[in-house]
Design goal:
By secondary structure, the chain is an alpha/beta fold. It is built from twelve helices and 14 strands. The chain has helices at residues 59-74, 82-93, 97-115, 119-123, 141-154, 167-181, 197-206, 224-233, 247-256, 266-269, 272-284, 298-310; strands at residues 3-20, 25-38, 43-48, 130-131, 134-136, 158-162, 186-190, 214-216, 238-240, 261-264, 288-291, 314-317, 334-337, 340-343.
Length: 353
């Protein structure tokens, strides 16, 4: 089997609900799609969701890499030599993780389609569904509570709340959300690097009665030791996100015992293969993992879901990046019901554009 056709293209998708986090406001997502077609007529699909702040890429740079480097390297090659292809590409575009994730995803999709199995079954098949949170950006208190009621009425059982600009306002939002939603709804908080040491510990103390499930990236990514000092004094599990980009990062976090959990995003790690290795290091160190996402097409969300379904060490999922995309060409690549995400059950990633 050989890859005889390949193409990449950009899709700009507006968000129905723009949102704010500690360092930016987001109103649009531009993803890059990749289609690989073999001489046997099978197609594998991948998707990149670059973010200049997080991955250091733009949609334009990813598309250029696909045209100039990725497609020339893999066209005419056996798609099942996935590790070989990715190893070569890492030497050329190792600083472009979402571009690598796009290729990794498409090659895994081809493997699943050729075998006739959903990808999560090939990767391990630990579970068949995954509870996901849905994100509430930085909003005034009344709007936060309104959004929470809206999402819980839709069936969501976990809310991830963004903050990091005002610790006292964040504490009030979390406490009022607990009063409004009750104990059946999981609350997760993401400061997006917005706090210093004192503010992070103030949040931990101030939300004691609300009992959040996790405290994500409270401090700047450049100060990893600070994460460790907070985790040592926090009753809430502290999770690294921006401080984890690759396998080397998780090894450093694990070796120094700096956090309780890590957030694995395929767009940061460079794809499923690297994510699996990161999860293995975390598991060996006694750290649980969450599978997260960027503002991604449902195709990329499906890849994250298949990873989450494959391994027992994934405790949480935050796979909601597709929900507000107005014109997602891969809408339907995952299914949502009663708070859980399900794969389509079709081979590979389970979706055909």
């Amino acid at each position: 089997m050989r890859i005889n056709r390949a193409e990449a293209w950009m899709v700009a998708m507006e968000l129905d609900q723009p949102y704010a986090i500690a360092y930016e406001t987001v109103s649009e997502a531009v993803n890059v799609f990749l289609r690989l077609e073999t001489d046997g007529g099978r197609c594998g699909l991948g998707c990149a969701a670059p973010d200049a702040q997080v991955t250091g890429e733009t949609a334009g740079s990813v598309l250029a890499a696909a045209t100039d480097r990725i497609i020339p390297r893999i066209k005419g090659k056996n798609p099942f030599n996935r590790v070989k292809h990715l190893a070569g590409l890492r030497k050329e575009i190792g600083d472009m993780p979402s571009a690598l994730a796009m290729v990794d995803m498409a090659l895994f999709d081809l493997l699943g389609r050729a075998s006739g199995l959903p990808l999560y079954q090939i990767l391990g098949g630990y579970r068949t569904r995954m509870l996901t949170s849905v994100t509430i950006g930085i909003l005034p208190l009344d709007e936060t509570l309104e959004m929470a009621r809206h999402y819980t009425q839709q069936g969501f059982r976990a809310l991830k709340v963004k903050g990091g600009l005002d610790v006292e306002a964040d504490i009030e939002r979390i406490c009022r959300l607990r009063e409004t939603c009750g104990r059946a709804i999981g609350l997760r908080f993401d400061a997006n690097q917005g706090y210093d040491h004192q503010q992070a510990l103030r949040f931990v103390e101030g939300t004691r009665k609300a009992d959040p499930e996790l405290f994500e990236q409270p401090t700047p990514r450049s100060e990893k030791g600070l994460l460790g000092r907070i985790a040592a004094r926090s009753r809430i599990p502290v999770m690294a996100d921006e401080s984890l980009m690759n396998l080397k990062d998780v090894f450093g976090l694990a070796k120094r015992g700096l956090v309780d959990m890590v957030n694995i995003k395929l767009m940061k790690t460079g794809g499923l293969a690297e994510a699996i290795q990161i999860d293995a290091v975390a598991r060996a160190a006694g750290m649980r993992t969450m599978v997260g996402c960027m503002d991604e097409s449902a195709l990329a969300i499906a890849a994250g879901l298949h990873f989450a379904l494959a391994t027992p060490n994934v405790r949480f999922a935050d796979l909601d990046g597709h929900l507000d995309l107005a014109n997602d060409p891969a809408k339907g690549a995952v299914r949502f019901k009663d708070g859980y995400l399900y794969p389509t059950g079709q081979p590979g990633l389970g979706f055909t554009l």
